[in-house]
Amino acid sequence: MAHNDSGIWNMKNYRNFLSTLIGFISVCGSAQQLKAQQIPNRPNIIFILSDDHAYQTVGAYGAKIAKTPNIDRLAKQGVRFNNAVVTNAICGPSRATLLTGKYSHKNGYPLNEQKFDTNQTLFSVLLQQASYQTAWLGKWHLGNLPKGFDYYNILNGQGQYFNPDFISSAGDTTQKEGYVTNIITDLTKQWIEKRDPSKPFFLVVGEKATHRSWEPDLQDLGAYDKIKFPLPSTFYDHYETRLAAKDQDMTIDKTMNLTSDLKVHASFDKPAANAPSQKELNKLFQAAKTPEEKAALQKQFGSRQFGRLNDEQRKAYSAYYGKVTREFDSLKLEGKALVEWKFQRYMKDYLATANSLDRNIGKMLDYLDATGLSENTIVIYASDNGFYMGEHGWFDKRFVYEESIHVPMIVRYPKLTKAGTTTDKIVLNNDWAPTILDAAGIKVPADMQGKSLLPLLKDEKAVTNWRKDAYYHYYEFPQPHHVHPHFGIRSDRYTLARFYGEVNSWELFDNQSDPKQVKNMYGQKGQEKLTADLKAKLKKLIVEFDDQEALKIFDQKI
């Protein structure tokens, strides 16, 4: 390098060097994109991402009561992942991980209701650079507007089930008439039809279903009313030896609201002009100290929740939930009878809402078949996180426990995958971005922390060096459900977790002998070697993925 007489690098030479370096990097990047563009018959890719869809309610995963014929159909035609888990089990962070292929501590989005930084490496931008047409339709929920998508039409925030607002890439916000899942499917078909058929496409179908507060489409009201659901064996879990589990606020008994969640005594009238916004109502609801105060708020302002219903929808909801309310009033329930009634209503509404999700997946699959796109289109179905269906007495997600982190995930790619196959390998949601890029013929950036799943899809038996353990880190506390932050490791047999903050504790479960995860073995005699081995593996993962916050906590004695 050239220096002047004083030994300082000449600034002109520095600028020339920097310009050459940037040009070299640009050329290398362009070469990568050009190479991808030259691959013949690059596949189209559709990623259907549902919200809070519990794997244990999917027929392909063993559910006996829930009706999911179209997701099951996808599983019969593709590969079902039996050990798909997420790295942070809440909505926005899971989407941020999809976009970046990174853990939350690296992509900067560990909590909901923030603004996601789109000025980092996103797989969508790389797809665009490789001449893929890209779109995101439906739920986005990342606090800003999408980047790397030629077209988007996204729900405003969490969105609404009926007559929701959509924000489009044209810069307008439009209220669309109808039920959200049907609308998203219509937008999907419209975009595919208008695309340039000479180029491959990538599309995210972001479903709102099955997010709380579980509002079924009109045709699905009462779909499960004749079913009496069995109580999960852990429904009356008392959380012995699990301090964080005992301290949460996500029980069907105390947290689930009769009016806003289960629509008992809900008002379906149009909201009064002076009614607070739903955001303001949420603040009032969180500030309420007793169930009676919460119920009074919902009775007074509940119409805001259903203020978008049109006359037909209002009539149907009033008739159906009016009948539910009369039944509830006649029973005069309390104690266990009340909480078990709430569980039954929760299951009925949740699964009825899931009906529209499955039906619309079927419509999309039929459309791909009818247009001849199925053969060269990869279809991926997954949920952003798991969900509790009464296990431990809960709804929601968040914990490192199995129902939270375990998600349904199915991949269909007729040119590559053998129909009806399964894999037990541990896969993560930070694998999604590398897989999509690999399938498109694009080199996976070094800073992505997941792995491409294509080797597993091609020939699982040939893959001998796949991960044995998953790393997990949850952050959001104290609201909305008072689940204490924690990190941990989940292997093919064991789960070890370190809770920190207001509750400092360790938990260890043998998921083979104790699949319900109710027996915390940490600190028990005879578990010393197992605990030491798992702690060593956990620390190795913490260092490997550079989670500095977790590393500091890990080394603290409690």
Q: What is the percent of helical residues?
A: 25-40%
User: What fold name goes in the CATH topology slot of the largest domain?
Assistant: Alkaline Phosphatase, subunit A
Level-1 CATH class name of the largest domain: Alpha Beta
Radius of gyration over all CA atoms, rounded: 25 Å
With strands numbered from the N-terminus, the spatial order across the biggest sheet is: 7-6-5-4-8-1-9-10-2-11
Beta strand count: 16
Report the mean per-residue pLDDT as an integer.
92
By secondary-structure content and strand pairing, the structural class works out as alpha/beta
Largest sheet: 10 strands, mixed
Counted by DSSP, the helix tally is: 16
Low-confidence stretches: 1-9
Task: Report what the structure shows.
By secondary structure, this protein is an alpha/beta fold. The protein folds into four domains: about 1-40, no CATH class; about 40-215 and about 350-460, Alkaline Phosphatase, subunit A (3-Layer(aba) Sandwich), CATH 3.40.720; about 245-345, no CATH class; about 475-555, 2-Layer Sandwich (Arylsulfatase, C-terminal domain), CATH 3.30.1120.10. It has 16 helices and 16 strands. A ten-stranded mixed beta sheet has the order 7-6-5-4-8-1-9-10-2-11, with helices on both faces. It has a four-stranded antiparallel beta sheet with strand order 13-14-15-16, with helices on one face. Strand 14 (about 485-490) and strand 15 form a beta hairpin. Helix 2 (about 70-75) packs across helix 11, helix 6 runs parallel beside helix 11 (about 335-370) and helix 8 (about 280-285) runs antiparallel to helix 9 (about 290-300). The chain is globular. It starts with 10 loop residues before the first helix and ends with a helix. About 45% of the residues are buried. Residues about 1-10 have low confidence and may be disordered.
